Amino acid sequence: xxxxxxxxxxxxxxxxxxxxxxxxxxxxxxxxxxxxxxxxxxxxxxxxxxxxxxxxxxxxxxxxxxxxxxxxxxxxxxxxxxxxxxxxxxxxxxxxxxxxxxxxxxxxxxxxxxxxxxxxxxxxxxxxxxxxxxxxxxxxxxxxxxxxxxxxxxxxxxxxxxxxxxxxxxxxxx
Amino acid sequence: xxxxxxxxxxxxxxxxxxxxxxxxxxxxxxxxxxxxxxxxxxxxxxxxxxxxxxxxxxxxxxxxxxxxxxxxxxxxxxxxxxxxxxxxxxxxxxxxxxxxxxxxxxxxxxxxxxxxxxxxxxxxxxxxxxxxxxxxxxxxxxxxxxxxxxxxxxxxxxxxxxxxxxxxxxxxxxxxxxxxxxxxxxxxxxxxxxxxxxxxxxxxxxxxxxxxxxxxxxxxxxxxxxxxxxxxxxxxxxxxxxxxxxxxxxxxxxxxxxxxxxxxxxxxxxxxxxxxxxxxxxxxxxxxxxxxxxxxxxxxxxxxxxxxxxxxxxxxxxxxxxx
Amino acid sequence: xxxxxxxxxxxxxxxxxxxxxxxxxxxxxxxxxxxxxxxxxxxxxxxxxxxxxxxxxxxxxxxxxxxxxxxxxxxxxxxxxxxxxxxxxxxxxxxxxxxxxxxxxxxxxxxxxxxxxxxxxxxxxxxxxxxxxxxxxxxxxxxxxxxxxxxxxxxxxxxxxxxxxxxxxxxxxxxxxxxxxxxxxxxxxxxxxxxxxxxxxxxxxxxxxxxxxxxxxxxxxxxxxxxxxxxxxxxxxxxxxxxxxxxxxxxxxxxxxxxxxxxxxxxxxxxxxxxxxxxxxxxxxxxxxxxxxxxxxxxxxxxxxxxxxxxxxxxxxxxxxxxxxxxxxxxxxxxxxxxxxxxxxxxxxxxxxxxxxxxxxxxxxxxxxxxxxxxxxxxxxxxxxxxxxxxxxxxxxxxxxxxxxxxxxxxxxxxxxxxxxxxxxxxxxxxxxxxxxxxxxxxxxxxxxxxxxxxxxxxxxxxxxxxxxxxxxxxxxxxxxx
Lengths: 174, 323, 482
Hints:
The complex is a heterotrimer.
Chain A: H1 2-26, E1 35-43, E2 46-48, E3 51-55, E4 59-66, E5 71-75, E6 80-84, E7 91-94, E8 103-105, E9 108-111, E10 116-121, E11 134-140, H2 143-173
Parallel strand pairs in A: 1-4, 3-11
Antiparallel strand pairs in A: 1-2, 4-9, 5-6, 5-10, 6-7, 7-8, 10-11
Chain B: H1 2-33, E1 38-45, E2 50-52, E3 71-74, E4 79-85, E5 90-94, E6 99-104, E7 110-114, E8 120-126, E9 139-144, H2 146-150, H3 152-159, H4 172-175, H5 182-192, H6 196-199, H7 223-226, H8 232-244, H9 260-276, H10 304-316
Parallel strand pairs in B: 1-4, 3-9
Antiparallel strand pairs in B: 1-2, 4-7, 5-6, 5-8, 8-9
Chain C: H1 3-8, H2 14-18, E1 22-23, H3 24-27, H4 29-36, H5 40-61, H6 70-91, H7 94-98, H8 103-110, E2 118-121, E3 124-126, H9 143-154, H10 156-159, H11 163-183, H12 188-193, H13 195-204, E4 209-213, H14 216-221, H15 226-229, E5 230-231, E6 234-235, H16 257-261, E7 267-271, H17 283-302, H18 308-314, H19 316-319, H20 322-355, H21 361-368, H22 372-391, H23 393-400, H24 425-452, H25 455-481
Antiparallel strand pairs in C: 1-7, 2-3, 4-7, 5-6
Helix pairs in contact in C: 5-6, 5-11, 6-22, 6-23, 8-11, 9-13, 9-17, 17-20, 17-22, 18-20, 20-21, 20-25, 21-24, 22-24, 22-25, 24-25
């Protein structure tokens, strides 16, 4: 009985991982790295653009502007946090891993190395809806999502197939 | 009997919680704030454009109008300024008496001990843009001599609050898609963005900017002259050009009037100043503090056409008869 | 199928057959002593009452800045996460055990915190104060809770960001709970009104813990029925459940009265496997599932999404955009009450087509709607993970300064906002969604067997439902990591 369960688990995991792999390979894209100049405007309670799609290898030159009050820009996965005073072209930036050493700048340069979905959030309380103020940077190829889609589909087929097998076996025994 | 004892203990516990909690909160808050020195508790409220000495509680924000703080100090008196913000990041700056700039993040507390040395009537400012009402976020800070402070009626007459413009809701016409006439739009933008808090009522100028090389902020009613426009005719044709949205640099080859290129150079410098702001201001005393008032960058809030409409409005109100 | 199943015609759940259930009370005698103590519920509510009281006060006199006020941080970050990700999946309605909302209502009805009053009130053998009216029959369902929850959630952008609003809503719920217990019998507020109770009831059916009779025969022979009617050792079930026949977690508030009243010591606290109780009894429960699923999707777009326009619609009290708010509310309500159910109905219809079953589509629809429980619960957990991992640092600062008054009780008031591994949350969310999908399909098959009886048809009937679960999972995957 126990062996049966282990076998089932192994089958499911194998199928799911196969699905994930298939997803990653199928959606794999390789675009030529380019330079992107991006101006991100922060306004209560969203960023514009609220979604940017870039590719691994790109170099991003990001200018940050706040339109009404002081906002922040905490880009997860890339160790960047900025403090953007409104109606000024300069802002302060720091590396969260490095503590609170703020530096004055007017541009952030990011060399995109990690694929996936990375959110940028406001890090300076900017009003009531502040905790929900965020944008997203999609870096292609987004292996987690592509693999995830494959894994989910593989998982469903794996489960249904197991049920089918079990039914068949039950009938054979009778 | 044993059960009744438990019941009594339970009642006691519940009563202790219900009555004790507020008492403990008040008592702790009292001892926590208790110092020998006077504490001046200022809260920044962006939606009303004030630094206030009123208590700002969660229940208040929607209903209450907060009073602009009129800070009164006595020379040599040690006080503690406690800054906090009810909404967004503000900055408190009273350069003339050497206080600030203090960046105040929402909900955080900043205790600054301070002893005033100079006496007189000064202004405090918020120097980080904090929304629609940012420009209104100023008030009086009066330092009395000890003799003045002792004389009540004298102190009252000195510390009387100056009348300052209060922040109003944004103009509906600017946001609801109404097709405003070009010059009217310029005027409303000037009012709506609070430009007059620095450039003076109807752009008459004259607002004092401490340690600024020219002392006061430039007026806008003489903008036509600053743009080197010769007469009313030139002014009218320029307003038309700005209104139709013609690219001004294209007119360089075929100028509408003789002194056009002089105008164009001036126009460029002024519209760039509106667009990008002028964060660095020439100081009168270069070793002293930074002037509190600087031209912010409006590129994010005003389009090129918006900026042109403001320039056109001020060209249009120039009084040519005075020449 | 084993012999017993064939004779009785009832499917016995897998884990009962496998004997996986363990009675925690037999295993831990100390736990049993604690739960059987009359003062247990009082003692466990007391600290919550204190925190709840501080929260209400903080919402009125505290700082208006949400992330510096305990009312917002404790309720919408800490409590919500503990509730949805830990209490409900692992310990059923254990929140109801410690919830302070009915505290004063119970006090009024019993005029006691701990001791038991004997007497006669309706069928109860306890003396209960108040009017003790019977709750109307046509409202004996969770529809009011469904609508109430949806209404609250329509204003969630305001509710979860303004300490004052949070405080007022909690205060009103406390007041309503107290007033209702004066008029109606037992826990009418908890059972039929409390918006939180509604989704607790649905999702607790998936919990890995249950409070049940140990031996069926003992209950059949029992004349006392103290668990239902109360006796000198305790009150009759405040949720009007009879332990002799109770089969589901849904409406059991784990108040532990029956542990005290049972004359035969026949109540056990069992562990069981996740989502092992697969019964949906009425459309109110199905719709609860739809509402929860639709809200999880809507919030992923509105609160955790990036679009500023929708946020401004939801935040109408500040932006004044009530037209937008109306559109937003209309989308929210129609998707929760109509669109998602309609899509599900379509899949149920497909299921009937494929199997050529004689069952009505409605019946298939209702029975299969159980798969919304594991699907929705895990999606909600996946949704809630970023809330605590990103904003959890507020808890550390707020614990030192609960009112936002510049206190520093434990020296942590200056702790800065710092998201915790935000870039790896996607992996956690993917695993959670896969888990939900797995349970939806495996439990879906069990449900399918109950509808279609024979195994081949059951598998065929399951296919459209698996398709629905797959679509929902892919949608969440897109919201979270796509």
